[in-house]
Structures are given as C-alpha cells and as structure tokens.
User: What shape does this take?
Amino acid sequence: MTHVIKTFDEYRQAWKKSVEDPEGFWAEQAETFQWHKKWDKVLEWNFQDPDVKWFINGKLNITENALDRHLDTRGDKVAILWEPNDPNAMVREYTYRELYHEVNKMANALKAKGIGKGDRVCFYMPMVPELAIGVLATARIGAIHSVVFAGFSAQALADRINDSDCKMVITSDYNHRGAKNIPVKKIVDDALEMGCPTIKTVIVHKNTGDDIAWNEGLDVWWHEVMEGQPDTCPAEVMDAEDPLFILYTSGSTGKPKGVLHTIGGYMVYAEYSFRNVFQYEDGDTYWCTADVGWITGHTYIIYGPLLAGAKTMMFEGVPTYPDAGRFWQVCEKHQVNQFYTAPTAIRALMAQGDEWVEGYDLSSIKVLGSVGEPINEEAWNWYNEVVGKKNAPIADTWWQTETGGILITTLPGVTDQKPTYACYPLPGVQPILVDAEGNELEGNNVEGLLCMKFPWPSILRTTWGDHERCRSTYFSMYDGLYFTGDGAKRDADGRYRIIGRVDDVINVSGHRMGTAEVENAINEHENVIESAVVGYPHNIKGQGIYAYVITDHNVSDLDKFAKELRAVVTREIGPIAKPDRIQVVSGLPKTRSGKIMRRILRKVAAHDLDSLGDTSTLLNPEVVEEIIEGSEKPV
Ligand code: WTA
Assistant: This one.
C-alpha cells in the first residue's frame, strides 16, 4: 500500500508527478499488488482508435488482491457488514476469511455449471452479500460480470442479457424493498420468456423464502449449487487487459451501451481512489448507500474497499423505511466513519426535516461523500451542517460509469472545499475545458465542455460488441480528447464545478437516462405518433422527466392516457424512467431540416419563457404558443 495523501502540498506534488511521469507514478501504485507476472510496459495509448492499455502483459487475478492478499494480515477482520431492510432482522458479517471461502465455493459452483473464462454472467439481485460473493466468484474464474440494476424491467433485462450473450443469470426469489417485496425471479422468468437463447442456467438465491415458479432444467438454488463445493478454488491467471465487467449505461442515442472495464487498470485505480478520497483508516466502517447495479456500487462498495482491506457496508433497504431517520439510525448503530450517498437522497431527507437526524449520534462520521449529480448549495449546506455538524468534510465526487472511478473531487481534510464544486482532479487525471469547436479554454474563470486529455488507468476500453460506438461517442467529438458529456466551470483557483450534461442525457435522482430511450418507450403506446422528452429542474430528483406527446386522435381522458403511458415506460425500461409530466401537443417545434428544437422544449418545461430565443426560423413557429399554453397543466 502506498502513502495516502494527507496535505494540500502532498496532493499538489502527487498530481504534478502523475502528469510529468504518469508511467512511473502508476507503476509505483501497481507495485503494491500481487501479480503473477509484472507488466512489460505501463502504458500504451491513443485516443483516436481509441486503444488504451495499462500494465501490458501483466498477469493477475483481482480477487487474489481483494481477498487472498488480506488473509494473513486481516483474515479475521470484517470485510462485508450487511444491514438488512428490516431494522429488526439480523445483521450479517463476513470476515475476509469467510468471504474468501464463500467466493471460492461459488467460483467452484460456477465452474460446475459450465462457466469459464470469458463467459458473461448476468446478475439481477437485491443488495445482499450473495451479490458481492457472486460478482467476485465470477472474477475469480475469469468470467465477466454484467450486473443489471434490479429496478429495470424484464424487457430491459432481456436486452442487456442478449447484447452480451450471457450464459447465466443469478437472481433471488424476492427483493425486500421498504414495505414491499419485489418478485425479482418472476422478472427474470419474464425476461427469459421474451427470448434469451444463450441463458443455460438461472441460479436463485433464497432471500425471502416466498413461493416462486420453478423452471425445471434451468433453475437451481444457490444453496444447492454451493453444497459440497470445495472452499478453495485456484484463481484464473488473467491478463491485465482482460475484461472484468460490463455495465450498461445510457447515452444520447440508441439503446444503453455495455461499458467495458478491464482488470489491471481498474484494480489499481479503484483502490488508489478509494483510500485517498475517503481517507480510510484501519478499523473504520465505511458505508456507500449506492446499489451494486450502478458503477458506484461496483467500485466503491465492492472493489475499492475490499482491495484496500476495508470494512464495507452493504445496505439492503431504502432511506425512508421504516422512517426518514433510517440512514442516521444505521450510521449510529454501526458507528459509520465514512458515509457516501447521492444528492437526491440528501434533498429527500432534508425535506423531511432536521428532527429525523437530530435524534441520532453521528459523531463517528469523519467524511461525507456525494455522487451522481450536481449537489446544489442548499443540500450541500444541510449535509455539512445538520449531518456533519461542520466536522466532516464533504467529498463531492464527480465521475462516470465510463471513468471507472472518481476523477474530480475534494480530498476531505486535505484540499479545501467549496459548496457545489467537485474541486480538484485526482492524481493521474488531466481535465481540460474546450469550447464548442474544441479549442482549449486556458486560464481560470472559464466555462466549457469537460474533456480529458490523458488516460487514467480505469478509463473504459470499449463498448461491448461495438468499438465504433465507443469511438464515436467519446473520442470523435474533439480530436485526441475523451469527451465526458458534461459542462463545467473552472474558478479563479482552478477548482472545477460540474454544471451538468450538455447532451441528451438526463439525470433523474442520480440515475442516468437517455431521452431517446424514454421516447422509444413512449412511442410503443399504440396511440403515440411522436414524442420528445426533456429534463426539467426538480427540487428532489435534480431533474424530472417531461414528455411532449403527439397522439393519433384527441385524447379525451388525459389521466387514463397518462397512466397508460407510464405503464408502457415501466414495462419497457422500469419505474425509474416514468415521466413526471406529460403534455399532449399537436406538433413539436422543428427546424427546417426536421430536427426537434429541444432547447425550446427544455425552456418551456422549466417555465423559463423569457429567453426562448428566435423561433421564427422554425418550420412551425405557431406550435410554440400552443405548447406554452398547454404547459400550464401537464398531467
Ligand atoms: C453526473 C455516476 C455533478 C455527471 C458515478 C456524469 C455528477 C454522470 C457528479 C455520470 C457530481 C456524477 N457532480 N455531476 N459529483 N457525479 N455526475 O455514469 O453528469 O451513472 O456525467 O456515474 O453523472 O453518471 P453515471
């Protein structure tokens, strides 16, 4: 383990070194891991193809670094602490040794079921320790995991399974979620019924024990496949650039794409960023409230903490069950030292009132983290004052599924902090702001498009099955740069503030969604001719979903129609993509070349009518008035 940055000066030096000698800098970090064979060369890259390789010809297995490596030094310390949905149900703990054996048993079970190196295994599971065990077992045998958030619909699950030809799905019978039980196995059954020809096995973890339908020949119980398996399994020796996982994420166009991360670089960056950002110290209890279905859960619940030998908590429940004090009750119960959550949760809890926080002793908290969307000043202040009592610095961490790990953040207690600013690039990260033509905006006090000019170890390598899509999405916009899709500002002292997406991606409660994806879902309704979806400011969710819809006849019962539309979107994508507001319109504002003028639709949705700009060049300027009028009463 290398030194953790402790002062602003050390941060500056580390960053400088990482820019002047990136290969030397990252080799030093990588040296601290277990390799079967060291790399021949640290880095080869170009952003044109793109082609990025770290630790070339290095051989390793990430689970040996997350588990085996810790057995002598901390085998009996807790690796995963699990807090169930029901506050009165039993907490589960796995020491590093116990986790090691469970992962090894599962690795053997996967092999027994025909899974081998390079095969894809899909996970559709609640937040239970078995999810982490399964993911690590997959990595142990060199297979590739694709975790799908268990809030996506059967259709969305089937699409993801088929895009990467998964051989197996691992799921649970039901998922506890607040007061509800969600039939996740049934959703898997529905997905398979839609046609997933590559799936040979479904492993079912018994979670609630409620009845489920059983497909003989396909389904097997988790506890049965584990039974009798040896509790050690040799780790498959992998190349540093072999795939580790696929994670689907939304973009401006088309279906979600499978972002691919590879083993060596991801491992080094996940561990390095975890230790530095959270300033984790031995004996601390760290809690990230994300779901493993998103990148935050991959890197900062499972891989980063376990690689660093930390005690990481997994929480099965939701922030408001049984009441709005749940997060703080859990922090007190487990004496949480680092707490990492999303602005949408902060805003939702803030709206419930301070009394839900005040009853709990939060003095153990040393670091507060924020992720997933811009944090507004009010939420930042509340987090700082009411939760942190001004004693716990906030790490506002900016990053993406594609970046694999945090790229821009305050380092709590190390660098200074400024509300709503993510602040500084981590060592190894070289941000650059450009204007729309791609010219670099030099100096400070500038605002532009956020790009990266040099690779960091956990940058995505490709999008599954479609490298051209990776190139055109991220590397073709500005020659030689990785384009993030975000706009940002650099203040007088070089701190970055992320403003938000500049493309057709919206961020609803920290969930990334493509407007085209939601439109495609809406268009599945038989009476919809065309639709346009935009985001609008929402005080809890950050952004809400506003849908403008053209129908093939006059809709008489608007409420019924809206209900049907929401049901269609829930069916196609999942409840997280349901439009908050729906407005039936007779036309959409279009340019003379037939492109929808989203800028106008965004302004109308935000009730920002003073700066609509010139609408006279539109093909159908008359439609704008009608849309403005109708926007007063969307459903
Ligand atoms: C947004 C989540 C402002 C941003 C880790 C980015 C943020 C997208 C922040 C990626 C932050 C994430 N401040 N915006 N601290 N963190 N974002 O792939 O727009 O789910 O491009 O990764 O979330 O979302 P993703």
Remarks:
- Residues 16 and 427 are 8 Å apart (CA to CA).
- Residues 249, 294-296, 370-374, 396-401, 422, 484-486, 498, 500-501, 507, 512 surround WTA (CB under 6 Å).
- The chain has 20 helices and 32 strands.
